[in-house]
Amino acid sequence: MILFTKLFLAHLIGDFLLQPGRWVIHKEANKIKSKYLYVHVLVHFLISMVLLWDLDYLLPVAIITFSHYLIDLAKLYATPYFKLKSVPFFIDQVLHLIVIYMVVYYQNLSPHTAMLFSKIDWGLVTAIVFVSFPSSIIMGKLLEAMSDKIELDHKSLPNAGKYIGIIERLFVLMFIIMGRWEAIGLLIGAKSVFRFNDLKESNNRKLTEYILIGTLLSFGLAIISGIVYQAF
């Protein structure tokens, strides 16, 4: 585990701490001809070797470094085909982690992977999934009759309310599992403070009631999910 941790740390340092924005821009513009692509890969290699400080790991680090070069190069050419640059970015990061994992545990890859899957708390996974998009859809159905009577705020970010709700429910679920019920009250208070100015300026009783009902529903679904998870 310590080997994977050190290589993962090297990846974080090389990809995020020691990669200036101008390197990224230069790589996107010049792709395989960019000198910073090769400097970036070399930095990864050096950081990994320094953290491991053992020449016995030279071959594994070389394999990871070469795969890093190939993955980054593929991302540079694939990114223009994606509408959102975040998609190839996350695919890139996942592939890097998979390579590190496979190199570290190549001797017992299947047994170790099976062991990891056996330790997954599927009840927790189900609770997390439920409080995300399924809960958003359920709330949308429950509030459908009311939402038609509320004037839309065209200045809002697209789907901002949905993602705020998902994040707050995840926090509530986490607080319940940790047994920190008081933190839920703090979260409600913080949300009230942020919403106060909007409601004050709009002076819209229907909007106030709609937001209040939506907030209570959101927190209620998360609390029920946390209680059910702990019960079973």
UniProtKB/TrEMBL annotation:
It comes from the Bacteria. InterPro entries: Phage_phiKZ_Orf197. Keywords: Membrane, Transmembrane, Transmembrane helix. The chain crosses the membrane at residues 36-53, 59-77, 89-108, 120-139, 170-190, 210-229. Pfam families: DUF3307 (PF11750). This is DUF3307 domain-containing protein.
